[in-house]
Protein backbone atom coordinates (compact mmCIF):
# COMPACT_ATOMS: atom_id res chain seq x y z
CA UNK A 1 0.00 0.00 0.00
CA UNK A 2 2.85 2.36 0.82
CA UNK A 3 4.42 1.70 -2.63
CA UNK A 4 1.13 2.61 -4.35
CA UNK A 5 0.95 5.92 -2.44
CA UNK A 6 4.54 6.72 -3.43
CA UNK A 7 3.85 5.90 -7.09
CA UNK A 8 0.65 7.97 -7.08
CA UNK A 9 2.53 10.83 -5.43
CA UNK A 10 5.23 10.73 -8.11
CA UNK A 11 2.63 10.61 -10.90
CA UNK A 12 0.74 13.53 -9.35
CA UNK A 13 3.97 15.55 -9.05
CA UNK A 14 4.84 14.87 -12.70
CA UNK A 15 1.38 15.88 -13.90
CA UNK A 16 1.54 19.05 -11.81
CA UNK A 17 5.01 19.87 -13.18
CA UNK A 18 3.74 19.33 -16.74
CA UNK A 19 0.79 21.71 -16.31
CA UNK A 20 2.89 24.30 -14.47
CA UNK A 21 5.21 24.37 -17.47
CA UNK A 22 2.50 26.16 -19.47
CA UNK A 23 2.26 28.87 -16.82
CA UNK A 24 6.00 29.41 -16.53
CA UNK A 25 6.99 29.09 -20.22
CA UNK A 26 4.72 31.17 -22.49
CA UNK A 27 6.76 30.70 -25.66
CA UNK A 28 9.71 28.74 -26.98
CA UNK A 29 12.46 30.75 -28.71
CA UNK A 30 15.49 29.38 -30.52
CA UNK A 31 17.97 30.46 -33.19
CA UNK A 32 19.81 28.73 -36.00
CA UNK A 33 22.24 29.94 -38.62
CA UNK A 34 23.98 28.89 -41.78
CA UNK A 35 26.53 30.43 -44.15
CA UNK A 36 25.77 30.05 -47.86
CA UNK A 37 28.64 30.44 -50.32
CA UNK A 38 26.79 32.92 -52.56
CA UNK A 39 26.11 36.66 -52.40
CA UNK A 40 23.03 37.95 -50.54
CA UNK A 41 20.89 38.88 -53.59
CA UNK A 42 21.20 35.36 -55.04
CA UNK A 43 20.55 33.66 -51.69
CA UNK A 44 17.54 35.89 -50.97
CA UNK A 45 16.10 35.06 -54.41
CA UNK A 46 16.73 31.32 -53.94
CA UNK A 47 15.09 31.44 -50.51
CA UNK A 48 11.82 32.66 -52.03
CA UNK A 49 11.91 30.34 -55.08
CA UNK A 50 8.98 27.91 -54.61
CA UNK A 51 10.44 25.26 -56.93
CA UNK A 52 13.63 25.25 -54.84
CA UNK A 53 11.64 25.14 -51.57
CA UNK A 54 10.41 21.65 -52.39
CA UNK A 55 14.05 20.53 -52.66
CA UNK A 56 15.13 21.80 -49.24
CA UNK A 57 11.85 21.16 -47.42
CA UNK A 58 11.01 17.57 -48.40
CA UNK A 59 7.76 17.58 -46.37
CA UNK A 60 6.36 20.48 -48.39
CA UNK A 61 3.49 19.34 -50.62
CA UNK A 62 2.15 22.63 -51.92
CA UNK A 63 2.00 26.40 -51.54
CA UNK A 64 -1.07 28.22 -52.79
CA UNK A 65 -1.41 32.00 -52.89
CA UNK A 66 -4.36 33.33 -50.90
CA UNK A 67 -3.43 36.99 -51.28
CA UNK A 68 -0.22 38.45 -52.65
CA UNK A 69 0.42 42.12 -52.08
CA UNK A 70 2.78 44.26 -54.21
CA UNK A 71 5.31 44.89 -51.42
CA UNK A 72 4.92 41.29 -50.13
CA UNK A 73 4.25 42.51 -46.59
CA UNK A 74 0.97 40.95 -45.41
CA UNK A 75 0.80 38.43 -48.27
CA UNK A 76 -0.82 35.14 -47.22
CA UNK A 77 -0.43 31.60 -48.49
CA UNK A 78 -1.94 28.19 -47.85
CA UNK A 79 0.88 25.74 -47.13
CA UNK A 80 0.40 21.97 -47.02
CA UNK A 81 3.10 19.76 -45.48
CA UNK A 82 3.15 16.03 -44.90
CA UNK A 83 3.68 14.78 -41.36
CA UNK A 84 3.94 10.99 -41.04
CA UNK A 85 1.71 10.47 -44.05
CA UNK A 86 -0.94 12.98 -42.99
CA UNK A 87 -1.32 16.36 -44.67
CA UNK A 88 -1.20 19.38 -42.37
CA UNK A 89 -2.60 22.64 -43.72
CA UNK A 90 -1.39 25.95 -42.34
CA UNK A 91 -1.61 29.60 -43.20
CA UNK A 92 1.63 31.48 -43.83
CA UNK A 93 1.75 35.27 -43.66
CA UNK A 94 4.67 37.55 -44.47
CA UNK A 95 5.08 39.65 -41.33
CA UNK A 96 8.25 41.56 -42.25
CA UNK A 97 9.90 42.03 -45.62
CA UNK A 98 13.04 43.99 -46.44
CA UNK A 99 14.42 43.05 -49.84
CA UNK A 100 17.79 41.24 -49.57
CA UNK A 101 17.85 41.78 -45.80
CA UNK A 102 15.01 40.15 -43.90
CA UNK A 103 11.85 38.11 -44.18
CA UNK A 104 9.65 37.11 -41.24
CA UNK A 105 7.02 34.44 -41.76
CA UNK A 106 4.11 33.71 -39.43
CA UNK A 107 2.51 30.26 -39.47
CA UNK A 108 -0.85 29.26 -38.05
CA UNK A 109 -1.16 25.48 -37.96
CA UNK A 110 -4.19 24.66 -35.85
CA UNK A 111 -2.84 24.78 -32.27
CA UNK A 112 0.68 25.92 -33.17
CA UNK A 113 1.58 29.52 -33.88
CA UNK A 114 5.13 29.97 -35.13
CA UNK A 115 7.17 32.92 -36.34
CA UNK A 116 10.37 32.39 -38.32
CA UNK A 117 12.43 35.57 -38.73
CA UNK A 118 15.28 35.25 -41.25
CA UNK A 119 18.01 37.89 -41.45
CA UNK A 120 20.40 37.82 -44.41
CA UNK A 121 23.81 39.48 -43.96
CA UNK A 122 26.88 39.59 -46.18
CA UNK A 123 30.08 38.04 -44.94
CA UNK A 124 32.47 38.78 -47.76
CA UNK A 125 30.98 37.11 -50.84
CA UNK A 126 28.98 34.72 -48.64
CA UNK A 127 25.62 35.11 -46.94
CA UNK A 128 24.86 34.41 -43.30
CA UNK A 129 21.24 33.51 -42.59
CA UNK A 130 20.20 33.93 -38.96
CA UNK A 131 16.85 32.37 -38.13
CA UNK A 132 15.02 33.25 -34.93
CA UNK A 133 11.93 31.15 -34.24
CA UNK A 134 9.17 31.69 -31.70
CA UNK A 135 6.56 29.00 -31.00
CA UNK A 136 3.38 29.63 -29.03
CA UNK A 137 -0.04 28.05 -28.87
CA UNK A 138 -3.63 29.04 -28.32
CA UNK A 139 -4.06 25.69 -26.56
CA UNK A 140 -2.84 25.54 -22.96
CA UNK A 141 -1.98 21.82 -23.17
CA UNK A 142 0.00 22.37 -26.37
CA UNK A 143 1.91 25.25 -24.76
CA UNK A 144 2.84 22.87 -21.96
CA UNK A 145 4.38 20.52 -24.55
CA UNK A 146 6.52 23.00 -26.52
CA UNK A 147 9.35 23.36 -23.98
CA UNK A 148 9.87 19.60 -24.07
CA UNK A 149 10.15 19.62 -27.88
CA UNK A 150 12.36 22.71 -28.23
CA UNK A 151 15.41 20.59 -29.11
CA UNK A 152 13.54 18.70 -31.82
CA UNK A 153 12.09 21.91 -33.30
CA UNK A 154 15.55 23.55 -33.34
CA UNK A 155 17.13 20.46 -34.92
CA UNK A 156 14.49 20.31 -37.67
CA UNK A 157 14.94 24.02 -38.47
CA UNK A 158 18.72 23.59 -38.66
CA UNK A 159 18.30 20.61 -41.01
CA UNK A 160 16.14 22.77 -43.30
CA UNK A 161 18.74 25.56 -43.30
CA UNK A 162 21.56 23.09 -44.01
CA UNK A 163 19.55 21.57 -46.85
CA UNK A 164 18.78 25.06 -48.20
CA UNK A 165 22.52 25.81 -48.22
CA UNK A 166 23.18 22.71 -50.38
CA UNK A 167 20.32 23.47 -52.77
CA UNK A 168 21.16 27.16 -53.09
CA UNK A 169 24.87 26.56 -53.67
CA UNK A 170 24.07 23.97 -56.37
CA UNK A 171 21.50 26.25 -58.04
CA UNK A 172 22.80 28.54 -60.73
CA UNK A 173 20.78 31.37 -62.07
CA UNK A 174 19.70 30.86 -65.68
CA UNK A 175 21.14 33.68 -67.72
CA UNK A 176 18.60 35.84 -69.49
CA UNK A 177 19.06 36.78 -73.11
CA UNK A 178 18.79 40.42 -74.02
CA UNK A 179 16.65 40.27 -77.16
CA UNK A 180 17.89 43.68 -78.31
CA UNK A 181 21.30 42.11 -78.89
CA UNK A 182 19.95 39.40 -81.21
CA UNK A 183 20.42 39.83 -84.98
Keyphrases for this structure?
alpha+beta; 4 helices; 7 strands; elongated; disordered C terminus; SRPBCC family protein; START-like_dom_sf
Verbal overview:
This protein is an alpha+beta fold and 183 residues long. It has one domain (27-172): START domain (Alpha-D-Glucose-1,6-Bisphosphate, Chain A, domain 4). 38% of the residues lie in helices and 38% in strands. It is built from four helices and seven strands. The chain has helices at 2-24, 40-48, 50-56, 140-170, and strands spanning 28-36, 60-67, 76-83, 86-98, 102-109, 112-123, 126-136. The protein has a seven-stranded antiparallel β-sheet. Strand 6 (112-123) and strand 7 form a beta hairpin. Helix 1 (2-24) crosses helix 4 (140-170) and helix 3 packs across helix 4 (140-170). The radius of gyration is 21 Å and the shape is elongated. This is SRPBCC family protein. It comes from Tenacibaculum tangerinum. InterPro entries: START-like_dom_sf.
How is the largest sheet built, in terms of strand order?
1-7-6-5-4-3-2
**β-sheet strand percentage:** 35-45%
Query: Structural class per helix/strand content?
Result: alpha+beta
Count of individual beta strands: 7
How is the secondary structure organized here?
Blueprint: H1 2-24, E1 28-36, H2 40-48, H3 50-56, E2 60-67, E3 76-83, E4 86-98, E5 102-109, E6 112-123, E7 126-136, H4 140-170
Antiparallel strand pairs: 1-7, 2-3, 3-4, 4-5, 5-6, 6-7
Helix pairs in contact: 1-4, 3-4
InterPro entries: START-like_dom_sf
Organism: Tenacibaculum tangerinum
Protein name: SRPBCC family protein
Amino acid sequence: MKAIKIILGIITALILAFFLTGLVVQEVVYTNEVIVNKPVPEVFEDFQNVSLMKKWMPDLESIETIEELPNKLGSTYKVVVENKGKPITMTQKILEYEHNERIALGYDAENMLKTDDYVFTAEGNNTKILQTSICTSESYVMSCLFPYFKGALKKMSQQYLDQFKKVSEAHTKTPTIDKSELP
